[in-house]
Amino acid sequence: MDKGPALKGIQRDALLEIGSIGAGHAATALSELVDHKVMINVPTLEITEVHRVPELMGGPETLVAAVFIRVLGDVRGSMLFLVPRESALAMVDLLQGHDLGTTKVVSETDEELLKQTGNILAMAYLNSLTRLTDLVFLPSPPAFAFDMAGAILDSMMAEAGMVAEYAIVVSAEFVHIAGRVNAMLFFLPKPDSLEVILSRLGVE
Length: 204
Prior knowledge:
Number of helices: 6
Strand content: 25-35%
Largest sheet: 8 strands, antiparallel
Radius of gyration: 16 Å
CATH architecture: 3-Layer(aba) Sandwich
Number of domains: 1
Oligomer: single chain
Structural class: alpha+beta
CATH topology: Chemotaxis protein chec
Shape: globular
CATH class: Alpha Beta
Distance between the termini: 24 Å
Order of helices and strands: HEEHEEHHEEHEEH
Low-confidence stretches: none
Number of strands: 8
């Protein structure tokens, strides 16, 4: 897989630290939402070409739960929280404190829970960026979709007029006593925005 533009070690470390800080705040907010402790780890961070995002989900035809947020302000782009169908079902169980395998179909209530989860993680990531860069990020309300990964990316880019070339890929591991579930948060900044972020972090 082409991982996009090469990052210096210090650049990747800085972006990964932002992801880790954001995950800590997201775990606290999510634990309050579901009324039991949930941990979120960020084991990896990479940068990849936007058109390769569906491949990370298992291919363009993989059915996924998706939360989409547009980002305006000093840095413009989009946030996309993606969870393959089986992982989405497991995540609902984990967040509700059920045994894994309990949820068989995603209900409207489950969709709302997944939407809030994606929104919490995205907001925590953007808030961490704000604190460390002093840049203004203005997120839109989250939108939820349950469709094939390729179709979601295509419709998102068409609707938002996306011109992003690369995506920052934040792996997120949700951990609870019931088990572990993996998801991915994608930050798709417009072409000049990544340079702006790295400049503010002092790691150009």
